[in-house]
Amino acid sequence: MEKILTCIHKRPDALCRLICFPWAGGGSYPLAYWGKLLGDSIEVFCVRFPGRETRLNDAFAKDMTSMVNEITTVLFKELKDIPFAFFGHSFGSYVSFAVALHLKEKHGLEPVHLFLSGAHSLTSQAFLDFKNISLSNVKDEEILTHIQILGGTPSEFLLNEDLKKRLMLTLKEDLRVLQTFSFEKAETDIPFSCDITCFNGSEDKICDVQEWQKLTSGDTSSYELPGGHFYLLEPSNESFLTKHITRCIENAGL
User: Signal peptide position in this chain (predicted)?
Assistant: First the structure.
């Protein structure tokens, strides 16, 4: 379990667990650190994707199905007896959504709240266009430029050739996984009943956020915070997120 889920601030008496899913190419620490910032009733875990950190020697996931199966196998054991919520940013939003779907369909488990950050809706043209990109034809220079534009990556990673190559490889592999994810909502099918909240940076070009809100019969809301794609790393935005998430979970009637 500890290989795939990390918790740096344990709260064994917590009433709810928040499971965080990091962005493409990212590690677990920035979101696992939220365990010190959220309310005492919430214990924070962060998913550690293969190919990084303590899983550096593990093979990258081949597709979304294999990634979801691995994560849900661990999560089911941890969440079957305690309420839980999900937070995902960018790539992590899609993985969290896919894991939530799997838990609901296979085990009848559903998060009390789904927090999605920095993610196009699954039906948006931007997401569909991304799925058609041939990543094998994308040059490393283009990926590096994109990383620099988005921000969020420590400069020392980009100045160190070995770290830079590893980052770009990890990012590519995560994006390959994302390209294998497909979701088609039936006309009458609303997959969730939990509340959904969407967060985005004001300077980020996120498309059709409102479409996420059609996937639940619960309450929905969205917030735009100052900044770009990695707005959540700004201390003031991080403070807003952690306080708002704490309030949402504590008001869920656990």
Answer: none
